[in-house]
Structure prediction request, 643 residues.
Amino acid sequence: MITIPYLTALTTYFSYGLLFAFGQFRDFFRKIFDWWRANNLQGYAPICLGLEDFYIRRLYLRIQDCFGRPIASAPDAWFDVVERYSNDNNKTLKRTTNISRCFNLGSYNYLGFAASDEYCTPRVIKSLKRFSPSTCSARVDGGTTTLHTELEERVANFVRKPSAIVFGMGYATNAAILPVLIGKGGLIISDSLNHNSIVNGARGSGATIRVFQYNTPLHLEKVLREQIAEGQPRTHRPWKKIIVIVEGIYSMEGELCKLPEIVAICKKYKAYIYLDEAHSIGAVGKSGRGVCELLGVDTADVDVMMGTFTKSFGSCGGYIAGSKELIQYLKYSCPAHLYATSMSPPAAQQIISAIKVILGEDGTSRGAEKLAQIRENSNFFRSELQKMGFEVLGDNDSPIMPIMLYNPAKIPAFSRECLVQKVAVVMVAFPACPLLLARTRICISASHTKEDLVKALEVISQVGDLVGVKYFPAEPEKQEQLKEMIKMD
Amino acid sequence: MYVRAVPTTDLNRNTEWFTYPGVWTTYILIVFFSWILVLSVFNCSPGIAWTVVNLTHFLVTYHFFHWKKGTPFSDDQGIYNRLTWWEQVDNGKQLTRNRKFLTVVPVVLYLIASHTTDYQHPMLFFNTVAVFVLVVAKFPHMHKVRIFGINADQ
Prediction:
């Protein structure tokens, strides 16, 4: 639950109002200037109506240098960030050849597979030489290699489902599967903070979409009861099918889904569950098997399990795991399988090797060490940040920790100041998160060492003081408390 | 001191900021501080200042709530392109708390402006026109209505 200081809420509204007003003034004068100058459209309609890109032109471009920073090395714990400069107040950014080595707190590198790994990389290079970088074909034509079939078996085994299907792109997995699973006359009930890929896939399916309050099983039950009683929009016939879509770990809040309650409710009302484990697969759970293992939910109760390989496995692509009949049906009908180029073979090999390391099948205990390391790092970092007085979201054990900023001016201030001190963080502003709840999102990795984390904490604390984001009172150090107690004695 | 920000079920990013705590207070404070600004800049009587505030409030809110259609970003693929902000708020549900508050504010401003100018013309006439247009535009029966095709789509 996000707790805002009341004064901060007022100042945030006022700041956005001011930015909006300035943007409108500038647009007004720009319209007057452009009226005098002839436009070179020659009768064609303008691509943009002028109101649609207002946010981009007047708010986003001002702080454009905080987003989309190019990097010049693998996204390991330390990486090279390319320096950019602008001559026209951030409207265009030009790259220089200078790089600065920064501490990486932004990449989804949960288990440290993003950089060269002693087990995975030699095998990936071998598969690159054998299979070449692309299969140059769709899965149905000539793009299914032995690696793909082995990968699908291993993923099904890892996630504990009868069978699985893999795709080349994680976003496309959601966007292409949902229209196949459900169509007009069906009902999709999705969590209000679901990822854009789910929202787009749901809109593309043509089904009716209803939203339930974020992570609130009681509200889900209320919405389910209401919708089942009412039926389809105008005819009031019963729905053809109902799918409830939730995520394992929500990427902007870092909180775990209340899966046991939601599964119980869906079983009661006979609705299907679609679980998107993009951020939780490989990162949580005793053996890395995701949120079902962590919360003790039987995987046979979740009908469709989806996940991506970009976060914990250091590769690209997504998968869907489910019953044999479901996967067989998807192989016949999903356009991402029939028409899209299949996953790159070295990427598939990287995932196979990463799964082997996580499960300990490579003969070492590195997988278990990585899982323990990320849990320890996340809990240490989160508790230290909370002690300093920051407002940090997310549950314990979750490697994602958003720090709330709220005011729009603090977004570029925090980002630029951290970059100067060689810590690279990712900012999340509108429209990825609600207008007022701007935040910076920190992703902890198993490859971060304790010394690096302590140094990063110092930098963040300093920048937090400068920018003024320590909204909660800081807890004094235990040693100081002891000293004070001794002095009073 | 602290308030809880309960996440809403409103998917429209253009209007969901209106459901968080502190909006009403900010709105009232902006109106009040603009009155003080007008008083200090123009050095006029309080009644004239309230009339100026009322009329600029009319122009600004009519333009942004009832004239401009669509959203200032393109993420939603244009599904709200035919709706003004007032028609998008609260997902089109009528007579919610937010809508009632926004209907009351022009009326209160009208009462203050007409009281402090002692109900004299021509200020009374302009204030009355302002409150009439604003309140009629916010009626539930005016949802998606375009009189004489003004501001309708091509």
Observations:
- Chain B touches chain A at residues 1-9, 11, 13, 16-17, 20-23, 25-26, 29-30, 68-75, 77-78 (CB under 8 Å).
- Strands of chain B lie at 2-5.
- The first strand of chain B starts at residue 2 and ends at 5.
